[in-house]
Amino acid sequence: MALKSTIHKADLQVSNMDSNYYAAHSLTLARHPSETDERLMVRLIAFAFFASDSLAFGKGLSDDEEPDLWQKDLTGAIELWIEVGLPDERVLRKACGRSDQVALVLYGGRNADMWWNQNSKALLKLDNLTVINLPDTEELANAATRNMNISCTIQDNEMLVTHDAGSFTLLPSVLKTFN
């Protein structure tokens, strides 16, 4: 018998002073049985970083042909493709061919650093790719509950995350930006 996804509800407040985006989002996240709380929360943080009214969660781990998040225009063309974690470099190349822009949100500390060292040469050639590394995501797992109230304030590329049990700061490192 196959395990089913666990549904998480999140009321997310985004105040992004860097891009002048301020909005509240009521989100439903399906946590794949193989997904950790940390990865689930990194997907939520990726949503906050790239938030827009048309950004949506894809099937991610359940379907190799869909990203973790994406934004499409009214014709269905993919404007933004967002991957989370340490994907195969071929997946990113394919995404860059299918989308106007691609963003990768790395996490996992030393594992992410080693992955970037192994793949950076090939990825630096992709003009429409941005790579962001979240070095300290352990606290994110503690914020994961089935019903979450999360507030993300972004200023000067720093994110203050406030949740029901406390708050912490994320300091993302931009390894590559769109050209």
Automatic annotation (TrEMBL):
<dbReference type="InterPro" id="IPR009822">
    <property type="entry name" value="YaeQ"/>
</dbReference>
<protein>
    <recommendedName>
        <fullName>YaeQ family protein</fullName>
    </recommendedName>
</protein>
<dbReference type="InterPro" id="IPR011335">
    <property type="entry name" value="Restrct_endonuc-II-like"/>
</dbReference>
<dbReference type="Pfam" id="PF07152">
    <property type="entry name" value="YaeQ"/>
</dbReference>
<dbReference type="InterPro" id="IPR038590">
    <property type="entry name" value="YaeQ_sf"/>
</dbReference>
